[in-house]
Amino acid sequence: MYPPVLTKLDFVRRYAANEFGNMPKTWETIEEFEQSGFNGLIHIRNRVKGGKTWYNVKPTEARCVWDKLISSAKENNVNPQTLYLSAMGPEDNKIFQGEVQRGYWGLDLYCNNIAKPMREVSLKNWYNRQGIIATLLLKHFLCPNSYEWLQVLLDRYPDHVVEFSTYNTEWGTLPGYNTVFWEVRKY
Predict the structure, then answer these.
(1) C-beta neighbour count of 47 within 10 angstroms
(2) All residues at 6 or more sequence positions from 168 whose CB lies less than 8 Å from its CB, including other chains
(3) Is the pLDDT of residue 1 over 90?
(4) In the prediction, which pLDDT does 145 show?
(5) Extended strands (E) in the chain
(6) Residue 23 needs a FRET pair 20 to 30 A away by CA distance; which of 16, 125, 162, 167 works?
């Protein structure tokens, strides 16, 4: 049995240990990122629930942005222990994104088809689907590997929400997947 994910800090620790499947390349520290030689866009993420995230940071600017965030820690509600870095998804290739959970009548899906990071999509552009419609949408957009893994996550973590992004190409740390799983959290 897998323990529930009760805090953002717990999630990030388990996420970094690859517990939740396909994900973007992720680095715990700016030093680890710099040593990786990664040359794509990144985003600086926050271990604080609801905390800010910084998108589309160029690798050549990562250290400067990181240091600026740390130097203005109180304004940004951050410190080096609350930040980590991930590769930016190929937003131009995004075809579907959302949050899904098992509900009383089957799956509850909150989603959109907009090629932008989740937090940048206006609430008016999100829609809810339940039951068979939610299942059909997920099967349509997620490749078979991604759909199967989503089912594993929903089985392992009942009463949890799974947040995901789906692309029209394989992307993430695992070959053969078109969907990355950004977060699993107890609702």
Answers:
(1) 19
(2) 93, 95, 178
(3) no
(4) 98
(5) 26-27, 42-46, 54-57, 83-87, 94-103, 106-112, 127-130, 160-167, 179-186
(6) 125
User: 76 vs 24, 31, 127, 163, CA distance in Å?
Assistant: 24, 20, 31, 24
Find the length of the chain: 187
pLDDT digits (tens, 9 = 90+) for 24-74: 999 999 999 999 999 999 999 988 888 889 999 999 999 999 999 888 877
Identify residue 11 by its one-letter amino acid code.
Answer: F
Mean pLDDT over all residues of the chain? 94
For residue 99, report the phi and psi dihedrals to the nearest 5 degrees: -130, 135
| 96-to-34, 137, 177 alpha-carbon distances in Å | 31, 9, 14
Q: Measure the N-to-C terminal CA separation of the chain; round to a whole number of Å.
A: 18
Amino acid at 169: T
The 10s digit of each residue's pLDDT in 99-157 is 999 998 899 999 999 999 999 999 899 999 999 999 999 999 999 999 999 999 999 99
Rounded to whole angstroms, how far apart are CA atoms 182 and 163?
A: 5
